[in-house]
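Priority: medium. Attachment 1 of 2:
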């Protein structure tokens, strides 16, 4: 970041904070050669749209080593590769975790690492889930050798509450040096017990010696219903800071409760079986919640369609609410916390009949572009980096899920600890966040990504493979010197110049051509569900039919769309101003049967002239079961490499 000095009327020099620019970003293109091929695209749950397949990344406390984990392209094993943090090149051979199905979280230690993953139990295991369904497991490796292995689900884990598996882990791992405790937060589906056949999430703690801990007020066997977004960060002592997005209408700071209750961060438009991917959806539950350095404060990022016209959640009853979306596209929002339990500012309202349900939200973006893949990391005690991806002219034809269209850039925005933006967002057309954003001891925030032509089109290739990884970094001091390691040592590595590949957001606003020159006709589609099944999306094979109204806008993809969505009208309904006194209960065995039949919490209107930010007046009582097929046949190909990337900011 650069600061200019201007002279005020009284002769004082006042710094003008400009935020991030091209010099803030340093890339390390294809520095890591993978021993095994890697498939960088993960199909999202519900829509099948392309997501980055997560590559967990971590740096040791002493800064001398880094590790990256990845699932091989045959989806047979997970490999953990040690890196030189000054060059992002391999340091030795990769460790093979045989039979692991997902790289779900990684913690680096000075003598090795811990990996959260899932794997099938050996054939013949008593009380194992059917069909070799994977269960969650935590590994600890010391100096390249397995030290211990602890199952976090399956037989003999929280047997009273029911047995759980994790066919899609979609979780995260954190470690507290103060308590010497690992915390893991991940998605589960129960195969025995009162919630059998349904999806929730679980929080488990493991001691340094590999002993699974059951901690009252911290451990959880089944928390948030159909959580497709997890945010998790270490605290000095359990419970760790946790946030979940559920399929009943809210995002919760649930550090104290571990369930779909606690501090209500946001009202969200959701649908049965999915919370709408606010924290990345499939393969996206990482770097969503970050702790400010040497502080008890946290910051959280997510994407949202906003919330209007709150109405009663008829399934949960009481004053539990659901919402209609304010927009068909998603924008980026952040929230800050003074500690792991306390939200700064008011929590989201739960007032049946309220016309607006998102007045408390701190929006980082506005407008009609669709934003996704939001993540956050902290530079120090007072500065953070928020990032996301954009589609300038999106097609959003799935209720409460992702959108598709032409990728128009990754964005990187500096914010302070109060949640205020610092300068403008930096845009990159060839750098993406595809793994954990890690703060190095020299202040840089770095992460892995694949050097590829990224596409957010519905029919984007999903079978390409690579044997290279890249990295990128951003920091609060762009000196132009060679990047250093986490311990501050210098490096002779020559990073790729950012000047030819990164454009600032001001270039777009001023109409400067930044190489997106293709002109195409994009169609915005609003889908209206016509299926009345009340079975959740991932618990039925029913195929829906939809009716759609298409809105066509033509223009160059090198400029952002400024038309298409309009402000939503407010409701004139009488507002119940009574305070929220009824918290949503944790489901019991008596309620298990009704888990399959909550009402749909989503509906859109269609216009023949414009995609509206307007709620439907029709009843939201029917369920929409999405088709698993999101696109036609997709091309295949082979990528040539993977990159890592860092961004830097000048400090005043």
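Attachment 2 of 2:
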């Amino acid at each position: 970041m650069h600061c200019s000095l201007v002279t005020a009327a009284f002769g004082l020099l006042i710094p003008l904070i400009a935020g991030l620019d091209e010099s803030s970003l340093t890339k390390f293109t294809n520095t890591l050669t993978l021993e095994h091929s890697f498939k960088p695209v993960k199909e999202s749950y519900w829509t099948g749209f392309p997501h980055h397949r997560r590559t967990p990344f971590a740096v040791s406390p002493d800064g001398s080593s880094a590790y990256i984990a990845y699932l091989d392209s045959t989806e047979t094993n997970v490999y953990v590769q040690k890196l030189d943090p000054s060059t992002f090149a391999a340091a030795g051979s990769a460790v093979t975790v045989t039979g692991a199905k997902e790289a779900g979280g990684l913690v680096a230690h000075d003598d090795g690492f811990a990996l959260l993953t899932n794997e099938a139990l050996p054939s013949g295991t008593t009380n194992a889930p059917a069909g070799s369904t994977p269960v969650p497991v935590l590994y600890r490796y010391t100096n390249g050798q397995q030290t211990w292995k602890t199952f976090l689900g399956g037989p003999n884990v929280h047997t009273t509450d029911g047995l759980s598996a994790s066919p899609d882990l979609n979780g995260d791992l954190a470690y507290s040096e103060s308590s010497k405790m690992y915390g893991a937060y991940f998605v589960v589906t129960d195969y025995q017990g009162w919630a059998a056949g349904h999806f929730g999430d679980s929080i488990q703690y493991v001691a340094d010696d590999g002993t699974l801990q059951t901690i009252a007020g911290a451990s959880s066997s089944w928390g948030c219903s159909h959580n497709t977004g997890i945010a998790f960060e270490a605290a000095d002592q359990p419970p760790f800071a946790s946030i979940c997005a559920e399929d009943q209408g809210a995002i919760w700071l649930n550090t104290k409760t571990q369930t779909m209750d606690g501090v209500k961060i946001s009202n969200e438009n959701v649908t049965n079986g999915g919370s709408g991917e606010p924290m990345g959806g499939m393969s996206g539950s990482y770097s969503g919640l970050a702790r400010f350095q040497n502080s008890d404060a946290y910051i959280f990022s997510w994407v949202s369609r906003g919330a209007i016209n709150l109405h009663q959640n008829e399934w949960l009853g009481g004053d539990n609410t659901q919402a209609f979306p304010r927009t068909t596209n998603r924008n980026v929002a952040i929230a800050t916390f003074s500690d792991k339990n306390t939200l700064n500012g008011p929590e989201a309202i739960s007032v049946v009949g309220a016309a607006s349900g998102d007045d408390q939200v701190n929006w980082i973006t506005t407008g009609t572009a669709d934003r996704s893949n939001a993540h956050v990391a902290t530079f120090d005690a007072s500065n953070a980096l928020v990032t996301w991806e954009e589609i300038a002219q999106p097609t959003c034809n799935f209720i409460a899920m992702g959108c598709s269209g032409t990728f128009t850039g990754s964005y990187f925005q500096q914010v302070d600890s109060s949640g205020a933006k610092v300068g403008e967002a930096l845009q990159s057309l060839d750098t993406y966040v595809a793994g954990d954003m890690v703060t190095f001891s020299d202040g840089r925030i770095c992460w892995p990504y694949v050097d590829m032509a990224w596409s957010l089109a519905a029919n984007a290739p999903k079978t390409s493979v690579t044997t290279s990884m890249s990295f990128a970094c951003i920091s609060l001091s762009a000196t132009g010197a060679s990047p250093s390691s986490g311990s501050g040592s210098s490096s002779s590595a020559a990073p790729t110049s950012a000047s030819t590949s990164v454009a600032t957001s001001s270039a777009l606003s001023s109409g400067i051509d930044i190489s997106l020159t293709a002109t195409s006709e994009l169609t915005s589609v609003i889908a209206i569900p016509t299926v009345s099944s009340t079975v959740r999306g991932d618990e039925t094979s029913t195929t829906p039919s939809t009716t759609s109204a298409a809105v066509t806008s033509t223009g160059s993809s090198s400029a952002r769309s400024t038309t298409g969505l309009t402000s939503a009208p407010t409701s004139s309904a009488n507002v119940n101003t009574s305070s929220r006194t009824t918290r949503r209960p944790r489901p019991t065995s008596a309620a298990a049967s009704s888990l399959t039949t909550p009402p749909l919490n989503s509906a859109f209107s269609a216009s023949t002239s414009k995609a509206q930010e307007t709620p439907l007046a029709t009843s939201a009582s029917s369920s929409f079961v999405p088709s698993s097929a999101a696109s036609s046949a997709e091309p295949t190909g082979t990528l040539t490499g993977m990159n890592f990337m860092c961004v830097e900011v000048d400090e005043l």
